[in-house]
Amino acid sequence: MAPAGQWYGSTFTGLAHGSKQLALTYDDGPNDPHTLRLLEVLAKHDVKATFFLIGRYVRQRSDIARELAAAGHTTGNHTSTHALLTLKGQAEIRRQLSDCRAALSHAIGEHSNLFRPPFGGRRPAVLRIARQLHLEPIMWSVTGYDWDAPPAEIIERKVTRQIRGGDVILLHDGDHRQMGGDRSQTVLATDRLIDRYKTQGYEFVTIPEMMQRKSVQPKA
């Protein structure tokens, strides 16, 4: 579950420290109403983010998933039910990934091949099946520890303590346990974080944009 661990296969966790790019990522949506409120904040700052969506919620609120795509944000696979894949057999791992992809395709059509394992849980079989399905595993380097909805000040402080540049930031616009989970403090923290780091000259990008940057960086 360690986000930076590469023992079982390569996963993307960001760029080298010192980069002036940051990638905001949000898990467990789409969620009513906080995904929509987050969209308003991102639009205000002209920032695009990456959303890892749960298939069953995409089926419930395909309208919100479509709004994410229409606004130019990247959408990725976060399994069908937010299953801990380290505890699942290979057939169930494949079903979780395939069902979420089908839900995304039905709701919004073309979408990214990005995949984030729930809880960060992975083992060799998880990454092998993901690759067979042409999915790219994405982890993170910074987390706001916002899953239990602490005040925005705490989320912001936890993130700022970890930022080194080139980071993939993990936040949550939904709650895997239920639709309608309160993410108002994450929305507020997002507004503050964008203000803070844009003032310091950082650029907010999507995961595909950050991955493209990494692929063109010259080797030392």
Instruction: Return the structural class.
Output: alpha/beta
Within the CATH hierarchy, at the fold level, what is the topology?
TIM Barrel
- The helicity comes to 40-55%
CATH superfamily: Glycoside hydrolase/deacetylase
Unreliable segments of 5+ consecutive residues: none
**N-to-C series of helices and strands:** EHEHHEHEHEEHEHEH
Q: Helical element count?
A: 8
Can you name the CATH architecture? Alpha-Beta Barrel
In the CATH scheme, the class would be: Alpha Beta
Got a strand count? 8
Give the overall form.
globular
Domain count, please report it: 1
Distance between the termini: 30 Å
Percent strand: 5-15%
**Biggest pleated sheet:** 6 strands, parallel
How large is the radius of gyration?
16 Å
User: What's the average pLDDT?
Assistant: 95
Folded structure, characterized:
With 220 residues, the chain is an alpha/beta fold. It has one domain: Alpha-Beta Barrel (TIM Barrel). 42% of the residues lie in helices and 14% in strands. It is built from eight helices and eight strands; from the N terminus they run βαβααβαβαββαβαβα. Strands 1, 2, 3, 6, 7 and 8 form a six-stranded parallel beta sheet that branches. Strands 4-5 form a two-stranded parallel sheet. Helix 5 links the parallel strand 4 and strand 5. Helix 1 packs parallel to helix 7 and helix 6 packs across helix 7. It is globular, with a radius of gyration of 16 Å. The mean pLDDT is 95.
Question: What is the fold's blueprint, element by element?
Answer:
Blueprint: E1 21-29, H1 34-45, E2 50-53, H2 55-60, H3 62-70, E3 74-77, H4 90-108, E4 114-115, H5 124-132, E5 136-137, E6 142-143, H6 152-162, E7 167-172, H7 184-199, E8 203-204, H8 207-216
Parallel strand pairs: 1-2, 1-7, 1-8, 2-3, 4-5, 6-7
